[in-house]
Structures
1.
Amino acid sequence: MRASPNSWTFRRRLVLALLLVGSGAGGHWVLAREWGTGRTKGAGGLRQPLVGFPDRIGDWLGTDWPADPTVIADIKVDDHLQRRYAHPSGAMVVLWLSYSRRAADRYHYPTVCMRGAGWLENRAERRVLPASDDSPALLTFEFEREGGNQAIVYWYYILGADPLDRWLRSGSKWARGFLRGATSGGLTVEVFTQGEPVEPARLEEFARQVARELEAWLPDGTTSDCALGAAY
Amino acid sequence: MSAARKSRQHATRVDLALGLGGVAIFAWSFGGTLVELVRRWSTDPNYGHGFLVPIVSLLIYLSTPAAGEPEMSRRESGIGRALGGAAIVVGMLIHGFTVILPSIFLGATALVLVIVGLARLLSDARTWHRLRAPLAFLVFLIPWPAALYSRIAFPLRQLSSAVAEVLLDTCGVAVARAGNLLLLPGQEMFVAEACSGLRQLVAFLAVGAAVALLARRPLPLRIALFLSAIPLAVAMNIARITLMGLLANAGKVEWTMGIAHDLDGLVMVAGGLAVLWLEVWLFDAIERAPGHGPPRSNRTALEGGVILG
């Protein structure tokens, strides 16, 4: 005995659907087991909270400068630090560190945020300072507004990225855009001058000292970059 | 009990068991994607409307007439089901790819594709006709890719700030702008990322699509309704920022913060809905005018108040 032709046809389609979904689900499970589900969890975490970052960097002495809570809520970072550092010579800089488990920190970088605040970049002054033995490559900017100038040193770290992430990141900016907020953690570092201009060599030296100190916060396998933003 | 009836019951039980098995496999495989989607809807204000998408889909389904659609030929039906199967295959491939590239955009796209494919493969022609519009609406479950979102948010924010500055100036407020910073007498108003208008744009596109799908009007009008959600969202957000500026200038700074700030977003969505309703009303008024032929008989879920009542 058999069911009516329509019912059998429906059954056949049902079995086909079950096979398609079931084999796809099985393939997904095998892949996830092979590649590790940790990839989906944004596994790259800092070794310790940023609040413990030294308030003395060489000759520079730092004082916490709490950021506006509305701005912090807006940029969706998981940890941050904003601190003013003063040099005995009178030079003053602001250090900004922002960490995100899902690399959401990298949406905010100088050419976006400074333009948003009404500053115009002097493109001729943009320079990449090459990596040294104990410091990553750094990107410097200069912005102008109403006669005032501000120099910025910018770089970031990618935490918890595996070789596949690195390969994807080496692709197009769209591939990087898809990765942002999906896989690895991120730590953005920005050093801003404040008030009087700071001698470029002194600013660079401070930034490299910050990079050296940050080593104690970064997990193994961390990579760094200073290319503008993951999504642009 | 007759043998035939027993056989039918047995066949139904087998189909039910297969169906439940399929649902279990689907839930097991897409559970992570669903949890991530719910997390996104709960925590990202840009996608708070996600919870409403399945409900609106159901409303669209219920408002779609069950009968009166033409039957498909056997060949059309076969092609349709083959496409359904293909959608499942593509969806599952994308789902597998999310292990390598864990993006919620890809995960949700795979989820919707598989749901649509299953519906097409398993439903008969009449049911499929009822399911098409509600299934199409499920596209609003999918969060935008981060790269696209970022690319739209920044210029939108600049545009909103610039136009709000002009409007405030026109209203007699002494205002200057530095990027996204509006400088009013004695205070500053920062147009944050959340005020870019993208939240309104995402929500208005969903609302525009729902209205277009529910309004049983000619296709060009439906498309126009949907597309009009874009300028509407931008205009509503600019109006919102301008209103905030006017309130701040009048010394009512507290009205521009906290719950009041969030509520005005809801008011803007309600305002946008009213404008969409006005568009439908205007179309009907033009159509009813002399020289535009007899009125259409099959009026709408909109007039029944499903959405706008």
Note: The two ends of chain B are 51 Å apart (CA to CA).
2.
Amino acid sequence: MESELTDEALVAQFRETKDMSLFKSLVRRYQNRIFNVSVRMLGNVEEAEEVVQDTFLKMHQSLDKFRNQSTFAAWLFRISYNLCVDQARRRRKGISIVPITTQSSMNEENETESPYHQVKDDRPDPAEKLDNWERTKLVLDSLDQLPENQKSVLILADMEGFSYQEIAEIVGANVGTVRSRVHYGRLKLKELLEPYFASKNTPLTSR
Amino acid sequence: MIMQDATNNCEKIKELLSAYRDLELTEEESAQVERHLSSCEECTRDASAIETVAATLSQVPRLSMQIDMADRLEALITAQANEQPTETKVEDKVQKEQKVVSIKKRLVWGSLTAAAAAALLLVAAQYFTSHEEIAKNDLSPQAPFKEEATQNQPLLAKETSPSQTTAANNNATPAPNTVALQSGVSDNAKPKVQKALISKNETIAPAPAAVKKQSTPTVAKKPRVDATLDTIDETEALIAFTSDDNNMFEDCGISTDEDGLYAIKM
């Protein structure tokens, strides 16, 4: 029943009834997406988990401030985006709360028994998995070389499928800026990826 | 001319290729890009590369949490909701206790000051009533009082019990000068004593006035343990006054020795 409701309807009902099951429905809808974006932004599973928890605590505290001026998802991801930026800033200043055990994303994916997450990968062929593993590692390493603002919008646009308008709300920029960051981020990523695919004699094409 | 237009057009179109891929262009812009791509191989290759990069990113495996954050969050929020009122109560209690301790400290110091002031008044009163009598008595009539004062001071310094202070207060009865002054050993009549001391400091022979004030019924106003802030302020003023003016006794011709005994310079 709750799963059929839109985010905004769930929020409205929760405001009215304070029924925690509605709140939990919202959490279950978004926890993995926020976790995924946070891991990609921070490169650290534990920090990302902190961000997920803090995002929903903050959401619970400030749900009254959500006025439907944007989508609920954009409003929620703005909270988590700001937490990620804060966490990255703290880390730069050397005051990270969570010990930095920077794991490459591919290591995470190799550790299928990780207590924190699991990778959804339905392809059974080990050779294909390995190929995919290398490919993904290359992509994520290249992504890390981009300026932070380009990396963020690419994660939100290409990994999470947010519209430019939503991304603008999440990162606090105008739509034109987002469009520019997406475009130049992709061009930069293309430059970074081309040598690898050329050496592997594998055309950089989507499947 | 045509080539130059095409180059300019290519630059403009290339800027739009990502937004075109993401369906973020207006219909008009979209149609413009499509028309250009149909006739420009270079821009078509760029469009393909952008599509590839975007698709590659979208194919990066998604991570998910194995733990269900919903249950943990519910527990956290419920615990916070239950803790908040309790914390407030504890904080209030601690603040109240600190306030009580603070008031007690102030009362203790106030009592000490009042005792010293009362001792001063006693000696001063005797000085002004009869020089000869004081000389003859060789300070012996004051001995019990002085003893009481010296006993009271350490007692009050340690004292934290409101009941003890109150018990001392209960002795206060405005009466003949000597009695009133003795009762002044307790922390009664601090405001009045303070005024008397101030006036004494201003004039050379203020003691009779001070004694007059002391003997009025208003002297019997007693600060209670649950003193109001006004009372405390008066006490603080008294402490500040006396601590800043240690030579006051000498000004009046009165001094104390190491044992706290009072001597009058004749």
Note: Chain A is about 70% helix and 0% strand.
